[in-house]
Amino acid sequence: MAVVVQYIVVRNGVEKMTFATKKEADAHDKMLDIADNLSAFLKASKIKLSDDQNEEIALLLAQERDTVTALLRGVAPSTASAKKKATPAKSEAKPKTTKKTPPAATA
């Protein structure tokens, strides 16, 4: 018989997701905490949204928090999303140069 350890994120008595590692479960739980805080912020704002819209926007902002944080710091959108992408290897970043040998002198 095998023993399987699972980490379950439970919010308000409802199972949200199951994870294989505690680190993944904690990260998801933190994202949900951020979404809850953003939802409360949006509800208190002057913008009137339906509950579904409020929840969707809060979840989107929480899921993309790294990009949103960069945008709030004044980083351009293309730069903020480019940081997520892998940077090219050094050999790919520099163009190859070839040495030119001077022509042989004729006698």
TrEMBL record:
InterPro entries: Uncharacterised_YebG (IPR009813), YebG-like_sf (IPR038627). Residues 77-107 are annotated as: Disordered. Gene3D superfamilies: PSPTO_1197 like (1.10.10.710). This is YebG family protein.
